[in-house]
Every structure is written in C-alpha cells, then in structure tokens.
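pasting for the record
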Amino acid sequence: MKDTWKLKCIFLFISLLLISCYILFHNLGSNSLWGDEAQHAIVAMNIAKTGKLYPLMHKNNIYCEKEPLKIWITALIFKLFGINEFNARVVDASFGLLLTIVIFAFGTLIADCFFAFISALILITTPPIILSHCFRNGTQDSALVFFYSLSVILYLTFIYTDNEKFLYPAGISTFLGLLVKDIFSLTIPAFTFLIEIFLFKRRNIIRKKAWLFFIIFPIVSYLLWLFYSFNATNGLHYKVLYNNLGLNSQKALLHRFRKSHLFYVKLLIKYFLISIIASIIMFSFSKNSEKQKKAFIYSLSFIILYIICISIPARKIKRYIYPIFPIASLLPSIASENSYKKVKFIAEVLILTSIIQHFVYINNKISKTKIVTSHCIYNICSKNLNCKIFVDKEAIKFMNPGDRFYILNMLSKNITNKKQESNILITLCKKTKDKNKQIIRFTKKKGKLSEMCGIIYDSSIYINTCKGSNRRHHQLQGTNKEN
C-alpha cells in the first residue's frame, strides 16, 4: 500500500510540474516589456551593469516605488544569463513554480496527495494570478505572493505538527515579503494575533519564544530597514511609501482606483466559488480532528480578515487580493481530511471541472502571444529630446491601467493638460524596421481616427507624426523626425 501511495504521489507530482512549467514558461519571453515590468527591468539592468545595490536607480534618478529584493534577484539573472524579456520574467515564473510545489508538499502532509494535486492546480489555473501582473509578468507581486503564502503555510504546518521550529522560517518569510512590496506582509502577524488570541482564545501562546519571534521579528526588522532606506534616499522613500499606502487622498481617489466595497469579494467568488463551497461541504461532512478544525478556521478567518482590510480604503486594485489566492486554493486539501468518500468524489468532480475551464482559458491566452523582439530595456538612445504631450484632462482615465501608469511615470514632467476635442487612448501599434524600436499609436476615444505615433527608446517615449496626422503636428514640441 505504501509503495502504491508513493508511486501515485510521484506520478501526480511529475504531472503537476509539467502542467505548471507549461503554464508558467511557455512563450514567457514573447511579449515586449511594458508598464511596471519595463521600469523594474531598467532598474535591474542598472544594478547588473554598475553593481550598485542601493539605492535603486532608474537611469539617473533614485527609484523608491518598490522594495529591492525581487529587483536584486532579477539583476543577478541579468548578470548571469543576459538581458532579455525571458530573463526579466523568469524569476516571477520560478516563484510560481516553487509555490505550487510548496502547496503540493503541504497538501500531502495533511491529506491525500490527489487533493494536494488539486489544490496546486487550483492556484496555477487561476487566470488573473497567471496572466495579470504576477507569475508571467516581471513585477513585484510574484515574490510577494510567494513569501506571503509561504509564511501562512508554515504557520499552518505549525498548527498541524505543534513543532515551533516552523515559526522561525515563517517569521523570516514575512520579513522577506516586506522587502518585496510595501507593508502587505505585516497583515500576517496582525491577523494571526487576532485569530489566536480572540478566536482560538489561546492566550498562553504569547509565552512561546518562537511565536513571539514570528510576530515581532518581521516588524522590528522592517522598521530598521525603513530607517536605513529613508537615510539612503534622503527621505524620498518616505514620500513614496506615503503615496503607495493611499494616504495621499488625491492619488487614492483617481478614477481607475475607485471600486465598490464588494470588489474583492466578487473577485474571490468569480475564481474560487466552487472550491470554497466544495471545501465547506467536505468540512461539514467529515470526522474533523482538532488540528483540522483549527487549520480550516484559521485559513477561512484569515481570508475574511484580509478581504475586509483591503476593502476599506478607497484605492482598490485587482492584484491586492493575490496574496490570499494560494490560501484559498489550500482549503480543499484541509477540508478533505477524514471526509466521506462520496462527498470527496463530488467535490473532486466539481473542482476539476472548474480547473479545466480555467486551463483552457489560460492556454488560449498564452498560445496566441505574438513574438516581438524589441522591448524597453535596450539602451540605444543617445539623444535627450524634450517632447511634450498635450492630453485632455479626462484622457488618462480611459487608458489601459498599465499604459497609464507607464505614461504618468515616464513623462510626468512633460505632460501638460490642454483641452482637446476628444479623449485619447494609447495602444501598442507595431514594430519598426529597427528591432530596438516600437511604435506607440495615440488615437481618439470617439469619432474619426486621428493618429500620433511615439517611439520607445530605453523606456522613454519620443514623439513623431504618422502619415495623415499633420493636423496634430502643431501640438507637438521637440518632435522627433526620425522614423
């Protein structure tokens, strides 16, 4: 029986690796770098070339938008294997692969290896975490999701095993999450404290040194890091952190950030409704052990607290909910322990149906990716052209969020507000003959097409005019005549 169980686990593990590698690495370097990932790649490229780790530099400017850990890892990849699109994203895909392995390993510890396999598949086939700003994009969210989830999973392992040694790496993982992106990871010790003290009423747990390390170490370490960072950047990091937390009400209330208070609840329902309902049914119809009860209630309570916390601010972005996706995907594994066979079979069928649907959708998206050889991190521009783009006051909110963020950051000093007849969209248009250039086309939101083009040089946009758009030529200053 043990040999059969081992063979089953090995087969499922290899299958999981093959499916995960296909989803995460297939056509990974096909798209040009754009938006946030273009900026992070520029910063990582500077580190790879200069060897200067901190403060981070975007060209000649200090870059404090993100914490440095994931950018350091990308810089190391650039240094070892070269600078290209694939290497700019391979760290993110690797974090996704590692997380699926961690989920599978934890699932086999607490339940049948088939449900461990299902839990890992739920995560790796959740469309937004794969396609948007995470495991297939060169952004910070992949590392944040990995370290955040690893910390929570290690704490769940502590609940199951009563082995305090798991709390030490859990605390370190929380701190590493803080070195990736803002203060998201501080919710781990905060929510754990609330659940343990007020829900489980285990006040004696405070006396455990390992538990105190898990709660206090990340907070103290992060405060020390902030002290160093504020000094190293002459206070610039403080200003950026202030804005990123949404404390700047003007930024928080931008049109693209305003969402309903149920925004995150709807997202969770959209992608995890079947698995959560199946988990609750299995949990209800099982001979629950004390450890299983605690683990399931801890996971469910953690998800609820997290959603409440991120739903309060006016500023809401889809990727903010990503850190709890892996926890939600673990619920079927936790609930399946000691559940009745018939109930488990029904749950398996329902969840696998959802997984197949998501996989087909993801496969469609990653298979249709067009290969583009040019991207923002090739440094070919030696001229410093000062171009100005005149945009309508309302134009920016109609742009794609990634494009808008890119424009506001790259051209913040050059954009001026001026009323125009219609709003403007920005979209990637086509390649030029030069492999290191790309055309950006500006078109009207409504009415007849009237186009302007820009060329990307090393993540900066320089404006020239397209054929048939001479009537807008007078609106440009410092026009680049070169095609």
